[in-house]
Fold:
Amino acid sequence: MSLLQEERKIILSNEYVDNFDFAEVEEFVKNASKDLFISHHFKTIDKMLVQPRGGFPTYKKQFALNEFFVEANVDVLPLTIDSNTRLNDYATAKKMLRLSEENDVDMLNGYPLVNHGYRNTRKMVTHFNKPVSLRHGTPDARLLIETAIASGIFEIEGGPITYLLPYSKNFPLDKAFLYWKYVEKICANYSKLNEPINRESFGPLTATLVPPAITIVIQLLEMLLSLEEGVKSFSVSFSQTGSMNQDIVMGAVIRKLSKHYAEQINCGDATINLVYHQWMGAFPTNKDFAEQLINMSTVIASMVGADKIITKTREEASGIPTKEANAKTVANTQYTLGILNGLPNIVDAEEEEILTLEVHAIMEAVFNDPADTLWRKVFNSIKNGIIDVPFSPHIINHNEMITIRDAKKNIRIIKKGNVPIPDRCFEYEKAQCDLTKDTTSIVNDIIHDIGIMQ
Amino acid sequence: MKVVTGVVGNDIHVVANRLIELSLNARGFEVFNLGVNTYLEEFFDAVVETGADILLISSLNGEAEGWSREIKLLKSKYKNLDNLVMMIGGNLVVGSADADTIVPKYKNYGFDLVFHQVDLNTGLDTLEEFLKERDK
Structure:
């Protein structure tokens, strides 16, 4: 038995797991409708795909949510997983699912996929015959992804860095790399049977003043870790920064560099897509303003030229949205996309050059780490602060980097910590900001900069 | 002066925690930041280990109330903490309540300074005044 098969056996020996019939699952994937594969839609549809967020505990409510989305002309259905499943606590998820079913009150913040099992979930997925994207936040997603693919969910979000640094204080990062390596291998193996399974990285990270260079480096590294295991379709992503120009620059640089680095490891045959997240920071409590913000995000996504947009709702500031509010955003976003014509082509060569130099410098430092494999190089680089994510709660993160907005609301690095930002770029970043203020006023500015959309 | 700070309980809200660290540093304190998701024992262990003068606990999701009830009992198990300045701030209840009822409650739990939904700089200004008065 191969090591992968042995690991698979261990993961499946768990009392909450479906009895997996892998021969049947392979047959299912092989013969599955092309419409279920987002990778197929990326290849054949020219328009930006619209995908909301959403997950309810019971099958019934999830089914009803999907009906609303389809009614609103959704392109990609989401399946958001509950927090217990994300931490592999299937016992609690089972109990809470039962309470939700018996009392008609939601006791989970998402769909407990492992407990529902792939046989049931597949019925829902094939009924709607739309691509489904798995949204979670799980450091050890091995069982979840086995169950997802067997259910017909052919897009898997996440990664060892982007699902750990924003969400956890002390889950061991090295373990996360190994667990995600398994996920990549499984996705790569199933990709050989039909259209490819698409992997997507979670670019928003902490959604709090993360500078473009850090976001792009992490997107590229998760892409490389995935492609080197054989994944053939990958989406890099980022969220609205607060400056339209910075978003457009970021979109141009990430497209150019993802292609460049994929070719460097001889994976130029893989398809790389770009995903844009509507504003991920704090939302206005005024629901009408929230809709304006969402609409503006859609316009920027079009300027960026994203292949997919992930939507928010007018109820973002108040909690988990109703299915009505959620479907409304989908319909509104589709409308805006339909009327946005004749977009100008904006290029800011100087900003692009600065950002490109920064990303290359950090990537080079990661590659120069003496470790023998890429994941170890990345692990070491996070550990010694070459990669530093502002506002990560994780103990391994350095937290030395400080960022602030300039007069045009671009996110700028004013303290670089151990991140190897080239001198010329660092001088440029600082020159855009007013650094004559004392630290207390700078802290006040940061508080203001975080909440700019409220 | 040394300060131990962090967010109590299973609370993972990190933004204010980083800003507290930056602000304390700017005001010349030596900061030991335990970050989010910190249990009471860890706070007191860190105070002993660093010889801190001030313990600044924060809370955003309101869990602090449940944890704070145990503070007196726990603190009594440690030696030499009589001069420790105990400060707490953030959202100090789950749901809502006004400062008039919250502040006395937390003082009773053993805190010298209590800030419910007060802005960071006001809280730290008050801390500095408190220290000045005490050292007169």
Summary: The longest strand of chain A covers residues 233-239. Chain A is about 50% helix and 10% strand. The interface with chain B takes residues 167-170, 206, 208, 390-393, 395, 399, 402, 438-440, 443-444, 446-447, 450 of chain A (CB under 8 Å).
